[in-house]
Specification:
CATH superfamily: ACT-like. Chain A, domain 2
Number of helices: 2
Order of helices and strands: EHEEHE
Number of strands: 4
Strand content: over 45%
Helix content: 25-40%
Structural class: alpha+beta
Strand order of the largest sheet: 2-3-1-4
Distance between the termini: 7 Å
């Protein structure tokens, strides 16, 4: 199965959404290369960056689910780098 490398950037304006985001990320744990979370207390937001190597549909589904959450903004940048899993 073909996979792509991408970065998912998430800004969380409503802290109560963090638990839901963590649950969604846990579902894709096998594909996540790394994660960085920064609480920006001065502005009362959290900034999360996810590096992922997964099939296109897994990345877009994860990004879409996170993007439907109230008070959460998500953007995904895709690399041209592809590979094959398995």
């Amino acid at each position: 199965m073909e996979t792509r490398v991408a970065v998912i950037s998430i800004i969380v304006e409503k802290g109560e959404q963090v638990e839901t985001i963590n649950a969604l990320l846990h579902e894709c744990a096998d594909f996540i290369i790394g994660r960085m979370g920064i609480p920006y207390r001065r502005r009362s937001v959290s900034i999360i960056s996810i590096a992922i190597d997964a099939p296109q549909d897994v990345i877009s589904t994860l990004s879409g689910k996170i993007g439907t959450l109230s008070g959460v903004c998500v953007k995904t940048a895709y690399s041209q780098v592809t590979g094959h899993d398995g």
